[in-house]
Design goal:
- The protein is 43% helix and 16% strand.
- Helix 6 runs parallel beside helix 9.
- It is globular and about 55 Å long.
- The N and C termini lie far apart (52 Å).
């Protein structure tokens, strides 16, 4: 029996993680979860899984939790309490938080030598170099949950990374994959939230529409697999059947194929090295008789180009990239700015000078906070 500490239980990845646990209740037990502000759903999940500790977003939400048998914590400190609870048990932290708030719990989990199944992209985007140092220092494993990184991980298993010619990360293309830049001038929030393939949270759906999500995955792949950016390519693949590919020096190519179902990479991340049985219809190759690929133009998808730029510069540039994106997407979700304004804001902050090449966690968190606060103050009233 493996204990699970789940951050972001009420989000898309969190709910699907609980589905996996529900189907494998003989193998996993939820000991702690964070539930954010969705108290109605939180109460249902808490009553079903009976965790020992629960984190709500704000202190005022504490009194709304019906189950009085669990310890209630709140806020950012509460997330760390979940990540570090009962330090000596056989456990894994599943970090399914959205945004920069996910960084510190990952760090603290590593410091108590607790393995991490990571869906929080911002952890590696903001602090990939530091996370890798901590993983090595504390002898901790980090397992990727993203379907693309799970595919690369499996393709590289047992191989020598020096034999890799390149890795290829596929992208569905998001809600606006068939629209031109000119078309994007008039798109709405409702349009942007209509992802053609995946059911995801609002923030990541917008990131998919701008292609920043794929840019983040490039930075993550660089840190996860120690692959230089020059060997990381992206390609549009509308069907979302091939999740990523690895090409080797002898020109052989490995790929992982599967239905677009996040429960599969979640299951692999928390059960590694085993592939657990999953009783749902699988990939039907006879019905999937056409696989299409298209270039992901950096001119059309500017946020993807910005991610490569920030990743190659390193230091605090990926922090600025993430902070500007997070704040801009937040404004777009509130319908305070237009869709194309997102990439304009990001460009403005990447053009600033960030001279610190070896930032500490504290410096990373502070810059992230400063940029987000500044953007929300400066752009909050614009259309």
């Amino acid at each position: 029996m493996k204990n699970i500490y789940l951050l972001g239980a009420c989000g898309s990845i969190g709910i699907q993680t609980l589905d996996v646990i529900r189907q494998n209740s003989d193998k996993y037990k939820v000991i702690g979860m964070s539930v954010g502000r969705d108290i109605s759903l939180a109460n249902k999940l808490i009553n079903e899984f009976n965790p020992q500790i629960v984190c709500v977003r704000e202190e005022k939400h504490s009194t709304l939790i019906e189950n009085k048998n669990c310890k209630i914590v709140y806020g950012d400190d509460g997330l760390i309490s979940i990540a570090t609870y009962n330090q000596n048990d056989n456990a894994i932290l599943v970090n399914a938080l959205v945004g920069s708030v996910g960084l510190k719990p990952t760090v603290e989990s590593i410091k108590i030598k607790r393995d991490v199944a990571l869906a929080n992209k911002e952890t590696l985007v903001m602090a990939g170099d530091l996370i890798n140092k901590l993983l090595e220092e504390y002898k901790v494993k980090l397992y990727p949950i993203d379907s693309e990184h799970s595919a690369i991980w499996q393709c590289l298993n047992g191989e020598n990374v020096e034999d890799v010619k390149r890795i290829i990360i596929t992208a569905s293309g998001g809600s606006f994959r068939d629209k031109s830049l000119n078309d994007l001038k008039s798109v709405t929030l409702k349009d942007a939230l209509k992802h053609p393939n995946w059911s995801m949270g609002k923030k990541i759906t917008i990131d998919s529409a701008t292609m920043m999500n794929k840019g983040f995955e490039v930075i993550e792949a660089h840190h996860l697999f120690k692959i230089p950016y020059e060997k990381i390519d992206t390609i549009m693949h509308k069907e979302s059947i091939i999740h990523s590919l690895v090409e080797y020096n002898d020109l052989s190519v490995k790929a992982i194929l599967g239905t677009p179902d996040m429960r599969i990479p979640i299951m692999y991340a928390i059960s590694y090295p085993y592939h657990l049985k999953y009783d749902v219809p699988g990939l039907d190759l006879l019905k999937s008789n056409s696989l299409n690929f298209r270039e992901l133009s950096h001119e059309r998808f500017k946020c993807l180009a910005y991610a490569y730029e920030a990743g190659k510069k390193g230091g605090l540039y990926p922090v600025a990239l993430n902070a500007a994106n997070e704040a801009a997407v937040n404004l777009f979700l509130q319908e305070k700015i237009s869709f194309l304004k997102i990439e304009e804001i990001i460009r403005a902050y990447l053009d600033k000078d960030y001279s610190n090449n070896n930032p500490t966690i504290e410096e990373i968190i502070q810059l992230d906070k400063n940029i987000q606060t500044e953007i929300l103050n400066n752009y909050g009233g614009l259309r």
